[in-house]
Amino acid sequence: MDRVLVTGGAGYIGAHACKALARAGFLPVTFDDLSTGWREAVRFGPLVEAGLMDRAALDAAFAEHRPVAVMHFAALSLVGQSMRAPGQYWRVNVTGALNLIEAALAAGCRRFVFSSTCATYGDQDGVILDEDTPQYPINAYGGSKRAIEDMLRDFGASDGLESVIFRYFNVAGADPEAEIGEQHRPETHLIPLVLDAIAGRRGALTVFGRDYDTPDGTCIRDYVHVSDLARAHLAGLTRLLAGQGGGVYCLGTGRGFSVREVIAAAEKVTGAPVPLEEGPRRPGDAARLVSGSARARAELGWTPERSDMETMIADAAAWLNGPGYAH
Known about the structure:
Helices cover 39% and strands 19% of the residues. The protein contains ten helices and 14 strands. The strands form three sheets. The protein has a seven-stranded parallel sheet with strand order 3-2-1-4-5-7-11, sandwiched between helices. Helix 8 packs across helix 10.
């Protein structure tokens, strides 16, 4: 059974990728320090409990498990925090990725699937963002991810590292079988915050800014179901293992939803109102981010299957209200 080293495999997206890998016949080896991930989410393969700043632990993991590829999800990922503490994001995300890349190459592992972000594009309103759109990140989170993309290209030229890079926006939903799902410490993503507000597990939902240049004044984002995202990562890995080379792919539906539209969809799915309060804009938030995915469809055969808003909310609600979630 071929092994894949999955950094951040105890986190939201990484755990779903591990499940997809296991179902496809791989053994996912999670590399995670559990600072934001959950031990309970590591259900599909072994756990190496360590962080990316620990080069010795990385070398030991590669030596023991001899993975055929790396899937790299581990990162600091809060936009607001990256505006307040940019040094932390540059240090952890970029240095951690450099350690990982160099450890992989030292072990002879030259296939790399990277979870990047469309935050590398910055605020480019009215544009469907694709792989050729210029990148102008407006926060340290997006900047650090773009730097890692640059590193992967440089190591491709110098050492033959083959990489598939995925750029996407808001990830939503949960495993349709409710084995795993979304739980962050603290929770910052809109859909679980909406559902927690409906269920009374938190106070009123704060809507940050109602004066953006959008139809209802709230930010617009493209959303993709986490299971669809995991399938894309598996398709990227399959491409590398087949010797078809790397590439950069945007993942989305091409259809953005405003904060108000997400709230309305949640009220429709649950039949309950969302308690709301107003808040100021958050630094670093772009007004409108929508991602195309034509290249992923053409080259990877990937199409989103569960990424309609009501399905994403229903799957998230089943997880958040089920026995597996740590309320």
